[in-house]
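User: I'll paste a sequence; please echo it back and then give the predicted structure.

Assistant: Echoing your sequence first, then the prediction.
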Amino acid sequence: MSATHESRAALVVIELDGTEFCDINWRVMGAIARLREFGALNVDLLLAGWKCGSAVDIAAAIPGVRQVLVVDDERCEFQLAEVFVPWLAAFVDGYSYVLIGATTFGKNLLPGVAALVDSQPVTDVIAIEAHNVFARACYAGRVVERVANLQPIQLLSIRGTAFAAITQRSSSIPAPITRLTPPATQEHSRVVQQERVASERPELTSARVVVSGGRGMQSRENFQLLYRLADKLSAAVGASRAAVDAGFATNDMQVGQTGKAVAPELYIAVGLSGAVQHLAGMRDAKVVVAINNDPDAAIFQVADYGLVADLFEAVPELIGHL
């Protein structure tokens, strides 16, 4: 049964990075703040993990939260969709909204939940225009689709780059914590091995500055130039799909339609042609600087500042001036 407009309630599914609270959650809470502009909203947070006590404390301190629903259990260590989805689907009845980040985590869970509760999700939400009207980017960002969702449960995945993180992150009165029964054990799948990439650089999706390279870098060794530039700017390093496919950079560095969406204050594109799939991932960058020796490269059509030059001369010179 759906909630009435006056008693709307939202469930936010909290994403964890291992045992830590992810930055994307602050931006999903930014979307919650936007929803509250259209009426009162009770907000519950659902957090499931293993040895995630510090993340629970952070969640409970978020202002305006009615309660934090928690399961801290070994079965939730890897947050497998096969475990989470049926368990999560059992909680959504009675909520007007279920929100989750449009990340790999969210994209893994939301379709399964939608299938079990027979509700069409609205994915990659980039704007909230009314309590049930949402904008989402499609066709690699070339089209913005506005959806009036008339379903009783609004299943929404939130594109983090489109919403500002909430600024007040701690309340003097923590929200109550409700412990839940862990999900049922299943034998359909199990994690055999997980490799985590440790980096001292800023996380790509939340970095203030991103230096990104394309196929024009010519080799994995040449990407060291970008790392040196990034070190000067305290920047994250990204790559186009072409650079990743060529083996110049790792998959977790890919920016674009099939990679990560970024929204830095400064995006420096080096040796990047500017394919539409890549532009879809960096369309929210505030200032774009492009360095490419091809004056007809598409990246110059979206760049605020463009330099037609040999990157192997221009980038070392730029590093020398910083």
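The chain has a mean pLDDT of 91. Residues 11 and 67 are 10 Å apart (CA to CA).
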